[in-house]
């Protein structure tokens, strides 16, 4: 990673501008600041607002250290901090700031001290990309920009290798319920412009691959002879959208030098029980004997061999018909913690090889994963084929070789997904466990699970990517770690310790482009610095 030395000189100069902190802030005189390991000396120290326990710092120092520009409007007493595609406005006396025009609460108002604009440190750091660690006992603030200042090279000293820029830096783009795309169901131009805008935003932040959901509910966002057009395109399932969305998306993605991975929900048939709005050639109407009603939705029975082959055939339409870089499955196998009405299939299709329904269900998913991989390798061996399962295979309480976790749901026991078997047999090219917990979540600790998965793939030839919960950043219902975008950056930094990890995928696109707590800005700093 790179950093311009003159930036540090500028920051030091700004810190040393003469100014006096009021004597009432005497306790702040002891606070020391370190930026990327180097101590910053200044006559203007940060200070703490005692009633709200908020550390205030000079905006100009931090923002210019990150390469942002500042404008100060004396009349409105508003500071505007700008980076490409990003604007932050703070006004003295107001407890809200504008982030790209949208109000966000401030824990303390902007203050003017001796001609300096002072703002809450954590707010600025989360929105402009600094990692902040406050040591209360030592009264030390560690600021990390994600940049490393290169020092002198000592002859004969081994140098650290440059970061791998071929790593996968992906985003899932959900189409079910029109979550990420398309937002409009009537205009081709709007659908296309929305998609290219999203690609540009993602690429600008360092994302180099998109995983686009092409089969949200047993239907298609691509030209198919087997399944109907998806209703997310026009509002009516089976209605021709007037263009081939997948051909368009693949072309635009590749035009930008990014990878396009076709994401499939293999066994979801419909998001509701009713079939009234389904097209005549939808699987739930054409083959009702293949369908199970579970959790107020319809799913295709994984235990039915003909149904499994139908899904493989629909996926191969994309593998053979489009220039996709990968075929990607999510964790929609068997639903967890619910009654599954597959007794008839168990009696019909269990040839005696399985002694329990659970083992039979795992066998069905194993067969599907294996046979799909074989189909891909026969015709398009260069396609990158992988699966994104739930983040916990098994807890140690159920299997001593499982992870040090206490998850209430596991891939093996709850969803009948035996990821270990897929890895050990080399049926897939990569695996992306959805490790959607923070680094301090005791039941399923992020770093412990990463440790476990890295060991699981080591020496197998199967690549490991990590699925990250971008959707949790800023969600007040999540634990405190998610109230800072730094959680994701810390996870990425933790991944760096393992050469087995080939990249990351973020769920999901709008939770990146929406820039919660400055997440997109921080990713850009991490990936492009």
Textual characterization of the structure:
It is a single chain. With 529 residues, the protein is an alpha/beta fold. The protein has 2 domains: 32-145, Copper amine oxidase-like, N-terminal domain (Copper Amine Oxidase, Chain A, domain 1, 2-Layer Sandwich), CATH 3.30.457; 168-528, TIM Barrel, CATH 3.20.20.80. It contains 16 helices and 24 strands. It has helices at residues 5-15, 59-65, 121-128, 188-204, 231-234, 245-255, 283-286, 305-321, 343-349, 357-379, 411-414, 419-425, 446-457, 486-495, 510-513, 519-528, and strands spanning 32-35, 38-40, 47-49, 54-58, 69-73, 78-83, 86-91, 96-99, 102-105, 111-113, 116-120, 131-135, 140-144, 168-173, 209-215, 259-264, 268-270, 291-294, 297-300, 326-329, 384-387, 430-431, 463-468, 501-506. The strands form 5 sheets. An 8-stranded parallel barrel has the order 14-15-16-20-21-22-23-24, surrounded by 5 helices. Strand 23 (463-468), helix 14 and strand 24 form a beta-alpha-beta unit. Helix 1 (5-15) packs antiparallel against helix 2 and helix 8 packs parallel to helix 10. Mean pLDDT is 85; it is low at 1-29 and 146-165. GO terms for molecular function: hydrolase activity. Residues 1-23 form the signal peptide.
